[in-house]
Amino acid sequence: MSLGAVDLLEALLFVSDAPAKPEQLARAAGLTLGQTEQALEVLSQRLERQGGIQLVRIADGYQLCTKPQFAERVADYLKPQRQRLSRSMMEVLAIVAYKQPITAAEIEQIRGVQSDYGIHGLLERRLIQEVGRKPTPGRPVLYGTTQQFLHHFGLQDLSQLPKLPDGSSADQGERRLPSLFDPE
User: By C-alpha distance, which of 113, 21, 30, 100 is closest to 61?
Assistant: First the structure.
């Protein structure tokens, strides 16, 4: 694998604001998918040996990020203002994640309260999206999680969601959300 291809992929990943899929990288770099995956492996090994960043696979794509040993110092330097999700938004998000596709009325039935605020806030943050319409009278909107949701929580796919306690689901009686959804 030519170092030029590895360096090009590093440059593409550097300017990418979201995880880049291998197919996107191959197209942008003018490489085959196999060449791209090989170059990503070389890049990953090179970054492991030196420097302060690493290549991670997340949300079906690749992204450059800070190595864990530097994360605290980088966070102090940037002083990011994390957008906290309210408890109601976290409840709505957990329900959507585990029950998708799901309508607003179904979310409200599970929660027992109106959920417009939570749904609107999650749509704005691009953590959920409209995924279709339910084939029932009124054709209500169906909601599901997004790639941004996977990225936000560091998941490859929905199969990595924490398992619900045995014998229970998000809509049964006393709910205990898995730790992924515990408010910060």
Answer: 21
| Residue carrying the six token digits 């585990």 | 98
Instruction: Quick: pLDDT tens for 2-44.
Output: 668 999 999 999 998 889 999 999 999 999 999 999 999 999 9
For the domain spanning 87-181, the CATH number is: 1.10.10.10
Amino acid (1-letter code) at residue 76: D
26 to 32, 33, 69: CA distances (angstroms): 6, 6, 31
Say how far apart CA 17 and CA 101 lie, in whole Å. Answer: 27
Q: Looking at the whole model, is its pTM more than 0.70?
A: no
Structure tokens at 63: 């992204």
Q: What is the CATH number of domain 3-78?
A: 1.10.10.10
Say if 3-78 and 87-181 have the same CATH topology: yes
Q: Bridge partners of 128?
A: 145
The residue whose two tokens read 């704005």 is: 124
Q: 122-139 pLDDT, tens per residue?
A: 999 899 999 999 999 999
Which long-range contacts link 71-75 to residues 24+ away (Cβ below 8 Å)?
none
